[in-house]
Recover the amino acids of this structure.
C-alpha cells in the first residue's frame, strides 16, 4: 500500500508542478516581458487592420452591392443621366457614410463620379481594363486620394450586372466604386472602440520603434499602408500606454500568486482525500482477498463512501467469480459426460436397432403367413419410429450443446425437393390425400447448401401435415423471396387441409416437447421435437419459420432459408421436345399448373383440361384442325371417368388412337402396370412426379425407339448397377449384424468373409484377395479406425489401395469426418439402409476401377 500512496503523491505533485509552470510561463511571456508584449502587439497588427477595414467597409459593401443589383444602373452605364444619379446615388451616400462614388464601363472609362468632400484635388481618372481588375483583386486602398490632407480614401467596389442574368453569371455592364475617408475624427472613434491609439502619419516617419520610445510612456508600433498597385500611401501608428501594461502586469502577478496558493492547497486536500477514499478501502480489500476465502465479508470494513462501496462490490464480485468458476468447471464436466453418454448411447442403441430392422426386412422378403407378415410389419414400423425418435433426440442434444453445424454441398434443388416429397407420397396415398409439389419456374436449380438439413425440415413439416390431415390435399411450394449476388433466400410453404391450430398455441408448437393439444400425442403420436429442431435449423440457415392456421380449415407452415448460388448447368433432353403439343388431363387445378410449367421449361406446347370428356374432345378438335397433340398426360383418379377410361376412349377412336399417353397416379394399385399395358398406355408414374423422371418418360415415349411397356422409376441404388460380384471382407463384432450384412450382400451375388475385430481384418487382408472391406468402427482389441490406419500404412509399400467403407452406429457430429480422416473411402451409419449401402459399394468400386485404369 505504501507503493500506491507514493504513486498517488507523485501524480498529484506532478500535476501541481505542471499547473504552476504553465501559469508562470503564461505570465512570463504574456505580461511580465515588455519585449514579449511588443512582439505580441506587432504580430496582432495585421489582424487589427483587417478588423478595422472590415468594420469600416461594411456600409461601403452594402451600398455598392445594393446599387450593382439594379437594372437601372445597367441602363445608366449605357446612357448616363445626371439627374437620375443625383436622386438615386448622391442622395443615399450620407446614409452609408460614403464620401465618393464612381462608375466605370467594362473598358475602364469613367462614366460618372461624385464626392461629398468638396476638395478640388480629388478627382477620378480613367483606368485600363487590367487596372480595374487589379483594383478588385488587391487591397481596399486607392491611390486617387493619397495626397489629400483629410486622410486616406478607402475604396470598395462591385460588378454591375443585369439582375435577370445574375443566376446565369450574366454579362458585366460596368464597375461601381464607393469610398469612405479615414480622417482624424473617424480614427479617434476607432481608437476609443478598440482601447488603443490609432493614427495616420506621413510616409516619411520611421516604420520601426526605437528603444527610447519603448522604455518611455508608451509602446508604439508603425506599419506602412499601400495601395492596390503597391504604392505607399501612409503610415498607420498603433500606440499602447505603458501605464496600462504595468497595471496588467501587477494584476497578473496577483493572479499568479493566488493561483499558486490555491494549487498548493488543492494538492494537500487532494492527497488527503485520495488516501482516505482510495487507499484505505483498497488496503482493506487486498487484505481480505489475501487472507479470506470467498464468502461473507468479515475483515473488510463496510465503508459508506463511494470507494468503500466499490471495494465491497469488488470483493463480492471476486467471491461470485470463484463460485462461477466452480460452477463452470462442473458444467463443462457435465457437458463432456453428456456428450460421451450420447455418443455411447447412440452406438449401443443403433447396434441392436440395426439387427432388428435388418432381420425384419429379411424376414419380410420370405414366404410368410398373412398373420406373421402383419406381426413383422408392426415390428418394422415400431423400429422405424424408435429410430426416428432416437435421431430427433440426438439432433436436439446437438442443438442444446451448440454443436449442430451445416455441411454445404452443391445440389440440384428441384431433384432434392421432389425426391423428399416422393419419399412421403406413399404415406399420403395410404390416407387418400393428394400430395402436390411445385417449384416456381424462376427458382434456380443449382444451389449450395446442406441438402440433408433442408430435407429434414421439409420431412418434418410434410410428415406433420399428413399426420394431422384426414382428407383433402397437401401442397408444397418453393419460391424465391430474395436474391442478392451469389445468395438466394427460398420461401417454402407446406399447406394442408387438416385440423388446424389454435392461435394461442401457434407460437408454442415450435418449443421442444410442445404440441398444440395435450391429447394430440395420444391421438396422433410424436414427441414434439420435430418443429423445435426445424426452427433451429432454419435459424442456422439464416432464415425463420412460422405458421398461419385456423382451426378446422388447415394450416400453412412457412420457412425461409438462405443458400448459395452456383452456375446453372443446362441439361438438354436426349431428343428435341420443342414445339411438341401435350395435353394435360387432371381435375386438380394446381396439378395442371405444375405440369404446364414443367412442359414449358422444355419448350413444349402444353394445354390442360379438367376431365376425361373434355380431354377427349380437345384431342379430336386438335386432330381435325391439323395440329394434333402428340402426347397426353392423364390423371388416373378423376371424378366421373377416370384416367383409364379416358385412355380407352382415346385408343378406341381411329382419329386419336396414335396419341401417346403417360398415366400419373397418386394412389398406385396392384395391377395398374398390367392395366396400362392392356390399354396401350406408354408410361406410368407415381405422383407427385419428379421433373427428371417425367422428362425421362416423355423423351422415351416420344423417341422412335420408345418401348411400348410402362416405364418405371429406378431407385438410386439401381442407377449404379454392379457388373460383377465382389469378394468382401466384413469386420463386425456383433453376431446379429454379421448375419444381417452377410445375408444382404449374398442376396446380391457377393461373397462374404467375416472377422470379429480389426486385428483379424488386417491379418486376413494380407493373406487373401478382397475387392472391398466393410469395417465396423467400434470393435474390441483393435477398432476400425486403427485397422484402417494400419492397412493404409502397409499399402504405402505395395502402392495398392483397398476400398474401405465404414459401418458405424456412431451418429454424432464429426464421426464421418473422423472416418474419412482415418483413410476410409465412404461412411454408412447404422441401422444400415440397404439402398445407401449398395450405393456406397457401387460408388467406391467404380472409383477404385477408375484409379486402377
Amino acid at each position: 500500500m505504501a507503493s500506491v500512496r507514493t504513486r498517488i503523491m507523485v501524480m498529484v505533485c506532478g500535476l501541481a508542478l505542471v499547473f504552476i509552470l504553465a501559469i508562470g510561463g503564461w505570465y512570463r511571456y504574456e505580461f511580465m516581458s515588455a519585449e514579449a508584449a511588443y512582439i505580441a502587439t506587432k504580430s496582432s497588427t495585421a489582424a487589427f487592420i483587417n478588423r478595422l477595414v472590415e468594420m469600416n467597409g461594411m456600409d461601403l459593401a452594402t451600398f455598392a452591392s445594393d446599387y450593382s443589383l439594379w437594372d437601372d444602373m445597367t441602363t445608366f452605364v449605357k446612357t448616363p443621366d445626371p439627374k437620375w444619379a443625383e436622386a438615386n446615388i448622391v442622395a443615399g451616400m450620407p446614409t452609408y457614410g460614403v464620401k465618393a462614388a464612381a462608375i466605370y464601363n467594362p473598358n475602364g472609362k469613367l462614366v460618372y463620379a461624385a464626392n461629398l468632400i468638396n476638395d478640388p484635388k480629388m478627382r477620378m481618372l480613367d483606368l485600363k481594363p487590367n487596372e480595374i481588375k487589379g483594383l478588385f483583386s488587391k487591397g481596399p486602398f486607392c491611390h486617387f486620394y493619397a495626397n489629400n490632407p483629410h486622410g486616406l480614401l478607402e475604396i470598395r467596389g462591385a460588378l454591375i450586372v443585369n439582375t435577370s442574368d445574375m443566376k446565369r453569371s450574366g454579362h458585366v455592364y460596368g464597375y461601381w466604386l464607393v469610398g469612405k475617408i479615414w480622417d482624424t475624427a473617424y480614427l479617434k472613434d476607432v481608437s476609443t472602440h478598440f482601447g488603443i491609439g490609432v493614427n495616420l502619419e506621413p510616409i516619411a516617419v520611421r516604420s520601426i520603434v526605437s528603444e527610447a520610445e519603448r522604455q518611455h510612456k508608451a509602446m508604439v508600433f508603425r506599419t506602412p499602408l499601400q495601395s492596390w498597385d503597391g504604392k505607399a500611401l501612409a503610415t498607420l501608428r498603433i500606440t499602447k500606454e505603458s501605464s496600462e501594461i504595468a497595471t496588467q502586469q501587477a494584476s497578473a502577478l496577483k493572479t499568479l500568486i493566488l493561483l499558486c496558493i490555491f494549487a498548493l492547497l488543492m494538492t494537500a486536500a487532494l492527497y488527503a482525500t485520495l488516501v482516505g477514499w482510495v487507499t484505505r478501502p483498497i488496503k482493506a480489500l487486498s487484505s481480505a482477498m489475501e487472507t479470506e476465502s470467498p464468502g461473507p465479508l468479515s475483515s473488510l470494513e463496510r465503508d459508506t463512501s463511494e470507494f468503500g462501496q466499490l471495494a465491497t462490490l469488488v470483493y463480492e464480485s471476486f467471491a461470485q467469480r470463484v463460485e462461477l468458476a466452480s460452477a463452470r468447471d462442473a458444467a463443462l464436466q457435465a457437458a463432456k459426460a453428456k456428450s460421451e453418454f450420447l455418443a455411447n448411447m447412440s452406438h449401443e442403441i443403433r447396434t441392436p436397432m440395426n439387427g432388428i430392422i435388418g432381420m425384419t426386412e429379411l424376414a419380410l422378403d420370405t414366404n410368410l403367413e398373412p398373420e406373421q407378415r402383419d406381426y413383422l410389419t408392426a415390428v418394422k414400423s415400431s423400429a422405424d419410429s424408435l429410430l426416428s425418435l432416437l435421431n430427433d433426440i440426438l439432433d436436439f442434444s446437438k442443438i442444446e450443446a451448440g454443436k449442430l453445424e451445416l455441411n454445404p454441398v452443391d445440389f440440384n434443388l428441384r431433384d432434392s425437393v421432389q425426391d423428399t416429397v416422393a419419399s412421403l407420397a406413399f404415406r399420403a396415398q395410404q390416407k387418400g390425400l393428394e400430395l402436390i409439389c411445385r417449384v416456381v419456374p424462376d427458382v434456380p436449380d443449382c444451389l449450395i447448401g446442406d441438402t440433408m438439413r433442408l430435407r429434414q425440415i421439409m420431412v418434418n413439416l410434410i410428415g406433420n401435415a399428413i399426420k394431422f390431415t384426414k382428407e383433402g390435399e397437401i401442397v408444397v411450394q418453393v419460391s424465391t423471396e430474395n436474391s442478392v449476388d451469389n445468395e438466394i433466400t427460398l420461401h417454402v410453404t407446406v399447406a394442408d387441409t387438416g385440423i388446424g391450430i389454435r392461435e394461442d398455441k401457434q407460437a408454442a408448437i415450435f418449443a421442444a416437447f410442445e404440441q398444440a393439444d395435450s391429447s394430440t400425442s395420444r391421438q396422433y403420436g410424436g414427441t414434439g421435437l420435430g418443429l423445435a429442431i426445424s426452427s433451429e435449423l432454419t435459424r442456422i440457415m439464416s432464415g425463420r419459420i412460422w405458421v398461419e392456421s385456423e382451426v378446422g380449415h388447415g394450416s400453412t407452415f412457412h420457412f425461409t432459408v438462405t443458400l448459395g448460388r452456383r452456375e446453372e448447368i443446362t441439361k438438354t433432353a436426349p431428343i428435341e421436345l420443342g414445339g411438341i403439343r401435350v395435353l394435360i388431363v387432371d381435375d386438380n387445378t394446381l396439378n395442371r399448373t405444375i405440369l404446364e410449367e414443367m412442359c414449358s421449361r422444355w419448350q413444349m406446347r402444353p394445354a390442360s383440361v379438367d376431365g376425361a370428356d373434355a380431354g377427349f374432345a380437345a384431342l379430336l378438335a386438335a386432330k381435325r384442325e391439323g395440329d394434333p397433340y402428340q402426347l397426353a398426360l392423364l390423371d388416373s383418379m378423376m371424378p366421373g371417368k377416370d384416367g383409364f377410361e379416358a385412355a380407352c376412349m382415346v385408343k378406341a377412336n381411329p382419329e386419336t388412337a396414335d396419341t401417346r399417353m403417360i398415366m400419373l397416379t397418386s394412389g398406385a394399385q396392384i395391377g395398374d402396370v398390367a392395366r396400362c399395358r392392356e390399354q396401350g398406355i406408354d408410361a406410368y408414374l407415381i405422383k407427385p412426379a419428379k421433373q427428371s423422371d417425367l422428362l425421362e418418360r416423355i423423351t422415351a415415349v416420344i423417341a422412335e425407339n420408345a418401348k411400348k411397356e410402362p416405364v418405371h422409376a429406378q431407385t438410386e441404388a439401381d442407377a449404379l448397377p454392379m457388373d460383377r460380384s465382389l469378394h468382401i471382407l466384413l469386420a463386425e463384432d456383433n453376431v446379429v449384424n454379421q448375419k444381417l450384412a452377410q445375408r444382404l450382400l449374398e442376396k446380391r451375388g457377393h461373397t462374404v468373409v467375416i472377422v470379429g475385430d480389426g486385428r483379424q481384418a488386417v491379418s486376413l487382408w494380407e493373406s487373401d484377395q478382397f475387392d472391398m472391406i466393410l469395417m465396423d468402427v467400434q470393435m474390441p482389441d483393435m477398432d476400425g479406425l486403427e485397422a484402417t490406419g494400419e492397412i493404409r500404412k502397409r499399402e504405402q509399400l505395395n502402392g495398392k489401395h483397398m476400398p474401405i467403407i465404414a459401418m458405424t452406429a456412431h451418429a454424432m457430429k464429426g464421426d464421418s469426418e473422423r472416418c474419412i480422416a482415418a483413410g476410409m473411402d465412404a461412411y454408412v451409419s447404422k441401422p444400415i439402409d440397404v439402398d445407401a449401402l449398395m450405393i456406397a459399394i457401387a460408388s467406391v468400386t467404380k472409383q477404385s476401377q477408375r484409379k486402377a485404369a
Notes: The first helix runs from residue 2 to 32.
